[in-house]
Amino acid sequence: MTPRHPRLDPLADRYAAxxxxxxxxxxxxxxxxxxxxxxxxxxxxxxAVTALPLDAVxxxxxxxxxxxGAQTLQYGSGQGDPRLRERICDVMALExxxxxxxxxxxxxxxxxxxxxxxxRVFCDPGDVILAEGPSYVGALGVFQAAEARVRHVPMxxxxxxxxxxxxxxxxxxxxxxxVKFLYTVPNYHNPAGVTLSEPRRRAIIDLADRYDLLIIEDxxxxxxxxxxxxxxxxxxxxxxxxxxxxSFSKTFSPGLRVxxxxxxxxxxxxxxxxxxAQVLCPPSLTQYAVARYLDTQPxxxxxxxxxxxxxERRDATLESLDALMPAGTTxxxxxxxxxxxxxxxxxxxxxxxQPRAVNAHVAYVPGIGFYADGNGREYMRLSxxxxxxxxxxxxxxxxxxxxxxxxxxxxxFDKVDTGQFRAVEHGGSGGGQPFGPQVPDVEPFVGPxxxxxxxxxx
Length: 458
Ligand SMILES: Cc1ncc(COP(=O)(O)O)c(C=O)c1O
Known about the structure:
458 residues, alpha/beta, Aspartate Aminotransferase, domain 1, 14 strands, binds pyridoxal-5'-phosphate, Aminotransferase_I/II_large, pyridoxal phosphate, aminotransferase
C-alpha cells in the first residue's frame, strides 16, 4: 500500500548501519556560507594555488596529453606510476627518509585515500584508534566510517604528550581494547598548528617499540615550515612501525588529488589490493602531471614561495589576534602550515557563537568538529592560508567584536543565572567519552591553555 504521506527518503530503512553514523563535517557544513563575498572566511584550509605558475602548469599538462596521450589517458598500475614513485622518494628524503624504496610506495588519490586504505586494511568495527585531541576532521570521518572507536590523546605546544600516550596505552590494555594504531600529524598540526618536538619524537618511537604500537604518520604540511629546516619524520627513525602518508596537495595542487603511502612491503601489498577494489588505479593523467612537474619545474623554489606567502598571512593573523582579542582568549603560534587553534574565554561556546559570527561576516570552524567525543566547544580553528593579509586583519577584527559581544551577553545572563550561555562541560556531555577516562594529571587541551606565552597581551 502506498503510504499517505510519502517519506522524504524512501530508501531510509535500507542504509547500512555505518551510513546512519555519517554526518556532514563542520567544514563542509560551512561551504555555502564561506563562499559569500561579504564573508571573510578563516574556515577552509584551501591552499593558495593562485601563487602557482598557472600558465606553465597549463602548458605542461597540454604537452603531456599531446605527447603522451596513449599513457596519460589510459588505465595504469594499481600501485601507481613507477617514475612518480621514484620522485616521491626524493621528496621524502627532504624530511630525513633516505631509505625508502619506490616499491614500498603506493600512489593514492590524495592522502585522504591513503588514510581510508590504511584504515580499511587494519581496522575492524570496535577497534580502537589513538589520535591526538584535537584531530584532523577528515581522518575522524574515515575512522567513523570504519566503525572504529577513537580515543583522543592530549597535546600541548610541543605536540602529542608521550606520558599521556603511555597512559592511554595502559588503559586500553587494562580494558582489553584492541589498539590498531596511533594516528598522528606531527608537523604544523591540523587543526592545532603545533609541531611535535624532537625529544618527543624520540619518546614516541620508543613507546611504539615498547608497546608494539603501529604509527600512522600523516604529514601533508612538513615542508611548509617558516623558521627552520624540516624535522626528521617519525618514519625516518622507524621503518617497521611507522606507515607514512604524504601529499602533493599543499606543496603543489590539491585539485590533482595525488598523495601516497609509504609502508613495509607486506602492508603495501594489502594496500594495493584495497586500492584496486576501490578505484582500480589512481588517475594516470594527474600522476604524470605531478611527475613532469617535479622533473621540469622549480618545485623547491615554489615551496619556498608558498611558505613566504603563508608566513606573511600567519604574521597578519597573530599580530591582529595580539592586538584585538579580549582578555581570556588564547591561541597557538604556528611556525608553519595553515592553522591557529584558538581558545575562547571561559564559558563561551564556539558552536553556539557561530551564527552570530556569520552574521558579522566572519567564518571559522568550531572546535567540536575535531573531536570524536563531543569535546572542543571552547575552541575554534582559524586558517590563514587562503585570505589576503588585509582580509585576515578584517576577519580577526570582526571575530574579536563577536567574542566581545558574546562575553557581554554571557555576563548579563550569568548574572540572572539562566545558564543559557554556559559552555558544555567536558568529559561526558555532547556525546561523552566513548571509553576510558581523561588523563587526570595532564592538562588535556592544546597549547594556549598550558602556556602563558599565549596569554592575551592587552
Ligand atoms: C592532516 C591532513 N591529512 C590529510 C589531508 C588530506 O589531504 P589530501 O588533499 O592529500 O587528500 C589533509 C587536508 O587538509 C590534512 O590536513
